[in-house]
Amino acid sequence: MMKANISLFVGGIRPLPESGRPTGMYKQAVVAPIELGPEGFIGDQQADQRVHGGPDKAVHLYPAAHYAKLAARFPEIAGQLVVGSIGENISTGDLDENDVRLGDIWQLGSARLQVCQPRSPCWKIDERYACDGMAQFIAEQRLTGWYWRVVTPGVVSPGDALLLEQSDPAAFSLAEAMRLWQEHRPPLAAMERLFATPGIADNWRQKIANRLTWLRKHADQTPPPVTTFHAKPENP
């Protein structure tokens, strides 16, 4: 059975250092058992629920190994790049996007979680670290981590491990799905297979459907670029 040791993090809303915009990115380590409900860990908050939170973004996992890659690209902030700092609820050194498949179900404590979509990085990452271009780099290099939906609510303790319960070997790994999504003109058959994958988030499935429709109608045209991160709005 595949197993991953983890650290847990939750946090409330705090202002970003420059704009003062609210964010839930600042989190603290969990040191006692905590309840996990359908929309995430009790006591964890998201500032902008248009793009964060909800059942298909209930829990965010960020692979710990990505921090070394970020530090290599942005050495000026290497000291800030510690686990838990990018807003994740779960950190692990045992998994990355190559190790999980869309639709996978994992047990954590008495709860059960399903891998349902990659994270789409936000401009607030740049401001949180005072480092322009970081969110775009994370998106382009596919160092995003992923979101889980909560299949079975339960209680999770800091010493619990993620245990793989159910996986379809025919499903895309998260890394494969992200590469396909970022392709300039992905093969229609592969996109149709991604669209049909059980367990993926509804909002992502709709984006896949919209892109498929465009690709079918405009076979001879250059596709518009795929949005992979939330750029800072003109008037945030």
Question: How is this structure best described in words?
Answer:
- The protein has helices spanning 66-73, 124-129, 134-140, 174-182, 188-195, 202-217, and strands at 3-5, 7-10, 14-15, 22-23, 28-29, 34-37, 40-41, 59-63, 90-92, 105-108, 111-118, 146-152, 154-156, 161-166.
- It has 236 residues and is α+β, with helices and mostly antiparallel strands.
- It has a domain at 3-166: M1 Pyruvate Kinase, Domain 3, CATH 2.40.33.
- A nine-stranded mixed sheet has the order 1-14-10-11-12-8-9-2-5, with no helix packed on it. A three-stranded antiparallel sheet has the order 7-6-13, with no helix packed on it.
- A hairpin with a 2-residue loop joins strand 6 and strand 7 (40-41).
- The longest helix has 16 residues, at 202-217.
- The radius of gyration is 18 Å and the shape is globular.
- The chain starts with a strand and ends in a 19-residue tail after the last helix.
- The mean pLDDT is 94.
